[in-house]
Design brief:
Blueprint: H1 2-16, E1 36-42, E2 47-52, E3 61-67, E4 73-77, E5 83-86, E6 95-103, E7 106-107, E8 111-115, E9 128-133, E10 136-140, E11 150-157, E12 165-170, E13 175-179, E14 187-195, E15 198-199, E16 203-207, E17 215-217, E18 221-223, E19 228-232, E20 241-246, E21 252-254, E22 257-260, E23 266-276, E24 279-290, E25 294-296, E26 316-317, E27 323-327, E28 335-339, E29 345-349, E30 366-367, E31 374-377, E32 384-387, E33 393-397, E34 409-410, E35 416-420, E36 426-430, E37 436-440, E38 450-454, E39 457-461, E40 465-470, E41 476-481, E42 491-492, E43 498-503, E44 506-511, E45 516-520, E46 532-533, E47 539-542, E48 548-551, E49 558-562, E50 578-579, E51 585-589, E52 597-602, E53 608-614, E54 623-626, E55 629-634, E56 644-649, E57 658-659
Parallel strand pairs: 18-24
Antiparallel strand pairs: 1-2, 2-5, 3-4, 3-6, 6-7, 6-8, 9-10, 10-13, 11-12, 11-14, 14-15, 14-16, 17-19, 19-22, 20-21, 20-23, 23-24, 25-56, 26-27, 27-28, 28-29, 30-31, 31-32, 32-33, 34-35, 35-36, 36-37, 38-39, 39-40, 40-41, 42-43, 43-44, 44-45, 46-47, 47-48, 48-49, 50-51, 50-57, 51-52, 52-53, ...
Length: 678
């Protein structure tokens, strides 16, 4: 039967390949040795195949065949070479390549390997305007790759998009002064890096050449309702009068400095007018308004069947709250950095361990509150990374086990990083060098569920105990017997004296001074994962079966309980809630096959203030808040579906949030240097 099937396949191949060479495809006959050690190395619109043949076998040729995206079989001959580059492929498409050895008129069985070509044509991502003046605009950028052969700059006036000027720029340049421009007009500048196989996507900025800049704007991009500040350049136009700002909704504001938000998405035009030297002058200002500050779905695909997604993680912020970070899992443990002002992807850190298929990362990152270094680990391989704020590797620690465990914690002075792996080992690492200061197997065989740094102590939550450890040398101070199931961190009370956590199917708290169990709730639930504490002491948490519960600080009174009707079928699996400076709670609800993921907002009495949905489901992550923007991350919806990273503007007055992880918006797990004073 197998021989019959094989002959049928070969007959089909022969028909398809008749136009590829003059001789007939060999026929299957007596056994002939197939190729071995077949590998496929993806490239840009190409895949390099390589293989071996055992000693004593001497094929006269090799056949390579695959099916293209139009379901057409493409058949090739290598001319006897055991390495072949298949080109003219489409990036992002997964191909199955088949190789057969030819022995005169006979042919071996086919050996198959899969590969997915991807582009190496990295785009310019940081094109900026460094200066404007009389008839010129100065631009600068960073080289995205050493493979760049040149740059192409295209530019045009906003009102004349068909009149495009172009300029080629040498590959060694990272700055250019564009001259001969018409003043007081908005110009668009598009810079594309050119490679051997064509250009990458262009980065775009706009600027206005002028003898003197007539206005300043806080941001050229914003979300719906996010205020944008417009300011007239009084220094350059000291004698100007009648300064007027006209907005798309018809509102007219006067004065040198005004503030306004926008309700409509898309490019919005604001007209500035002023009387200068006795005559009226007018300028057009364009602001891009988006539904969200960040709306990022372009996760790198690991392979044709899986998706790179953020899992059990939470966005964290840089110490200055200017950058937000999120890591991804599902075989590719990348780290992404986004500008909180523009929502732009600043850089992506891609580990290089274990070849192209990286280990997963299923724990939130932490940021050093002093240096700004970002820390995270992988779930397999025992790799723990320290990444610099510019996206380059600082150091790597490889001694630990799986980091599918507690997020890292950092000392208040930023000198020590503490990690607990999935086998219960606790490590103290030098933050500058990554060298081990000490280690101890406090929870051997038990996953480290939570870490806190409290002055000179490290608090480790494990499956059967809360361990208090001397931060300087790792010696044991005390242990409190508990039973923790799936907890993913601590929440810290406003007075920094209590740490709350999930105790089996209830909530509990430990006294950080006396090292004793402070309180435990009577009300149970189907797996609490992460509580949070408001400024007034109210404790909030969600359960796996879709309940939200509100407790008094001593956990003895349940203030409110509900299973929100909007998420009745959803759960709060592995979610990390948030509370803001106005004592508003936020929690993410995971969707399912038919329902979207939600973010819900409550006050401390249990009143639901608002909720909003995301079109991709399976959201098992946390959220964070800075400058009125709530950052959330969505796991994705299954094979072939990407994760979703969102920054939604909810109101500047709400300020920075109080993270569930220790009380630090950086997720550093240090409770000595809070950003919010309650």
């Amino acid at each position: 039967m197998k021989n019959l099937i094989h002959i049928c396949i070969l007959s089909g191949l022969a028909a398809l390949a008749a136009s590829c060479w003059t001789e007939d495809i060999p026929e299957a006959g007596a056994a002939r040795h197939q190729v071995e050690a077949l590998t496929a190395t993806p490239g840009d619109e190409e895949v390099t195949l390589a293989w071996e043949i055992p000693d004593g076998w001497n094929p006269t040729d090799y056949i390579v065949f695959y099916t293209d995206e139009e379901s057409q079989t493409v058949t090739l001959r290598t001319g006897g070479a055991s390495r072949y580059v298949v080109d003219k492929l489409t990036n992002g498409i997964s191909y199955n390549f088949n190789v057969q050895a030819v022995y005169g008129k006979l042919i071996s069985n086919a050996v198959t390997v899969a590969a997915r070509p991807s582009t190496s044509r990295l785009p310019v991502t940081d094109l900026t305007v460094t200066d404007t003046g009389d008839g010129y605009v100065a631009l600068a950028w960073s080289a995205p790759s050493t493979l760049v052969e040149k740059y192409t700059l295209s530019y045009y006036i906003e009102d004349m998009p068909g009149d495009i000027r172009t300029q080629e720029i040498g590959k060694e340049q990272t700055a250019y002064r564009c001259e001969g421009l018409t003043n007081d007009k908005t110009w668009f500048f598009l810079l594309a890096a050119e490679y051997a196989k064509g250009p990458a996507e262009a980065d775009v900025v706009r600027a206005m050449p002028t003898k003197a800049i007539p206005y300043f704007i806080s941001s050229e991009t914003a979300a719906v309702d996010q205020p944008v500040t417009f300011e007239f350049n009084r220094t350059a136009y000291a004698d100007a009068s009648d300064v007027t700002w006209t907005f798309p909704d018809g509102a007219v504001l006067t004065g040198d400095k005004v503030l306004s938000g926008f309700k409509t998405t898309g490019n919005q035009t604001v007209m500035l007018s002023a009387k200068i030297d006795g005559s009226s002058r007018e300028w057009k200002i364009t602001v891009e308004i988006r539904p969200y500050v960040v709306n990022f779905m372009d996760w790198e695909q690991a392979d044709g069947a899986k998706y790179e997604s953020p899992t059990y993680t939470c966005p964290v912020l840089s110490p200055d709250a200017g950058t937000v970070y999120v890591n991804t899992g599902n075989k590719v443990s990348n780290l992404y950095a986004f500008d909180v002002r523009t929502g732009k992807n600043k850089w992506t850190f891609r580990p290089t361990d274990n070849g192209d298929m990286q280990a997963e990362s299923k724990s939130m990152v932490a940021v050093n509150p002093v240096s700004g270094d970002i820390y995270y680990g992988t779930s397999a391989g025992g790799q723990f990374y320290a990444v610099k704020p510019d996206g380059t590797l600082h150091w790597k620690f490889s001694k630990c086990g799986s980091m599918n465990s507690a997020p890292p914690a950092v000392s208040a002075d930023g000198t020590v990083v503490y990690i607990a792996d999935a086998k219960g080992a606790l490590y103290a690492l030098d933050a500058e060098t990554g060298t081990e200061r000490w280690s101890a197997p406090y929870a051997a065989g038990s996953c480290g569920y939570g870490l806190l740094v409290n002055g000179g102590e490290v608090v480790l939550a494990a499956k059967t105990a809360i361990h208090f450890v001397n931060a300087a040398d790792g010696t044991k101070i005390e242990a409190v017997s508990v039973s923790i199931v799936n907890s993913i961190g601590f929440a810290v009370s406003p007075d920094r004296k209590k740490a709350y956590f999930a105790y089996a199917t209830t909530l509990a708290a430990v006294d950080l001074d006396s090292h004793t169990l402070y309180a435990r709730s009577a009300a149970g639930g189907d797996n609490y994962y992460q509580p949070i504490v408001a400024g007034d002491g109210t404790v909030f948490a969600g359960t796996k079966d879709g309940y939200v519960r509100f407790f008094s600080p001593d956990l003895q009174t349940m203030i409110h309980e509900e299973q929100p009707s909007s998420v009745k079928k959803n759960t709060f699996n592995f979610t990390r809630p948030l509370v803001d400076a106005n004592n508003r709670f936020y929690i993410m609800a995971s969707g399912n096959s038919t329902e979207d993921s939600l973010v819900l907002e409550y006050d401390t009495s249990g009143n639901k203030i608002s909720d909003w949905s995301y079109t991709q489901n399976n959201c098992q992550n946390g959220c964070n808040l800075a400058d009125g923007v709530l950052y959330t991350v969505n796991q994705g919806s299954g094979d072939g579906g990407n994760g979703l990273f969102i920054g939604k503007y909810i109101g500047a007055a709400r300020g920075r949030g109080w993270s569930s992880h220790g009380g630090d918006h950086c997720g550093s797990g240090c409770i000595q240097s809070p950003l919010i004073e309650w």
